[in-house]
Input
Amino acid sequence: MSKFKLLPNQGDTLDPRGLLSRYILALGLILLLIVSSHLAAVSTVSNIKRSNEVISESANQKARVARIQSFAEMAAKLRVEASSDRINAEINELERVHKMLVATARHSTALREPYLQGGRGPALDPVMRKFIADARIVAALETRSEDAQAALQRIRIASNRILPAALQEANEAHQHDAKNHSNDLTAVQNVTFVLALLVLLVEAVFIFIPAHYAVRRAIDQLSAKTQNLSDAHQQVEQRNEELEQLRATAEHDSLHDSLTGLANRRSFEREIERLSAEAHETGGSVTVLHIDLDRFKEINDALGHAAGDYVLRHVGDVLRDTAAGDDFVARIGGDEFVIVRSGQRDRRELEAVATRVIELLSQPIRYHGELCQFGASVGIGVGIACESGSSIDPSRLIANADIALYRAKEMGRGRFEFFSETLRREVEEYKTLSDELAMALRREEFFPVYQPQFDAVTGRICGVEALARWRHPERGEVSPGVFIPIAERLRYMGLIDQAIFEKSIEDLETWDTLGLDVPTLSLNISSARLRDPNLAAFLTSNAHPQGRLVFEVVETMFSDRFDDSARHALDLFEELDVKVEIDDFGTGHASLLSLLSLNPSRLKIARELVAPLPHSPSHMKLVAAICEIASSLGIAVTAEGVETEEQRELLTKLGCDRFQGFLFARPMPAEAFVELVSKTNGTQALSA
Output
């Protein structure tokens, strides 16, 4: 059996179960003491109350005896019946109280003697019962009867001599008995108090003191652990602060452009949402100036991305300095920026801001000694909200600025444009045509029409140019002036060129089968198709007439973006005996050196040079110079857009050897071209 220890050792650990059992024991003892004290107190109070009531009732008995005697005497003097309610009530009350006192006396040694045995006089109980019986006789019979007179006499004797002494002795006995009870209860309380002190002492020695030491040691251990936790908490707090700083940095980075320090697209979208909501409440406006750099790609390609980054940082600084204090400036794309203004703005003020931005960004800057020349185009979208209910749609406002920017670039760059509903309709029409154009390629709605070319000397058809047309199922035939610009932007021209090529070759084979003399077939080839890496495979895998196929390439292609891929295509044409003709010559910037390098088989003088003839001496001189240069280089010359006899005669004298224009024939379907060739090449259509 293990030895019980009053105090725990220094190294002992706290036993929660043992400590709990001790406390339960202590609580049980305390509860027992509380209950005992309460019961003793309740018993004391109850006994004292009962004793007081008994003493009071015992004292009142004397008065009741006297009142009963008085009622009896009064009845005798007045010679009337004494059975009144009042005397009966007194008799009944006297009897009730006496029985209660006798019942109490039977359980008390001190009270038994005066009530039942007799002390200094006769016992109270038989005397009182006899008195009550006599009182009932007086109250029940007539006062003239002898029994009533005898009873009255006994009442007088008892009430005057016997009962007062007996009641006095009984009352004294009651008081003595109450005192004894009080003393006994006081003794019980004292004992209970002493026991309570002893119990508390025992609990203090065997429960509370050991528990105190155990708890204090546990507190010391907890304090040590708490200190460790506090240190760990401080480390966690420090780590949280670092994480919060990282979060704030990440949040800042997520809303700002790392290169320029401006807000980014995400931040821009948030800001436009916020300003639109404010404008809806106040009835104000929000303006977006969408800025896109011109010729930025050329700087990246020529000087590298480091130079491009330098330019973008410069643009950010310029816009930040140009913007007003409450303007919002952001970089939302590669070379795209925005300035957002809120509140009512005058159109002239917005024009001034856009003009200022364009002027500042058109000024060249230097990067490591190299000159960086670029510019900017600006699209302006204004959203106005009314307090009456209309609000600004942020996404629509951004789209409006994009539409205006697109128009500014389309109109020549280095300018600004305001959005308008007319512009929106044009863009929507453009989108509709763009979608329909993609479908048209899948449904093979593109087909060639043919415009013949006539020999300037013989008047015979010496070639034909295939021109692309779009037969729309609902719109009918769509003009090339409408769909070609869209196809070029969507990079569909290569596919259109291929479709026209395949159908034109089929028609040429049909004409050969019919025995028609069509010496050359000219096809327009776009810049995208010329640079298509699949072009070589297509030409080598598809049969085409040797020496009779001519690709017309616009002059600007050679002056603008003539690169290795284009050179490779031209070399391939030479290998495959495909001739090259420079289209719209005189409207671009091709140099004489490029003519020597390209060695085209033919130049086609643009209709813009042919139309003013013969009324413009300067145009005549230019056309004459072109013909002379082409002749000296052994290059044939075709004049397109010939519409009058005067033009034909003059161009013949200047040295053109082939004509094409409305004077001779308009573009026509293949069936009509077959009839024209049969008729024209069978007779002399033009005089020599």
Remarks:
- Residues 627 and 655 are 6 Å apart (CA to CA).
- The radius of gyration is 64 Å.
- The chain is about 60% helix and 15% strand.
- Residues 16-224 form one domain.
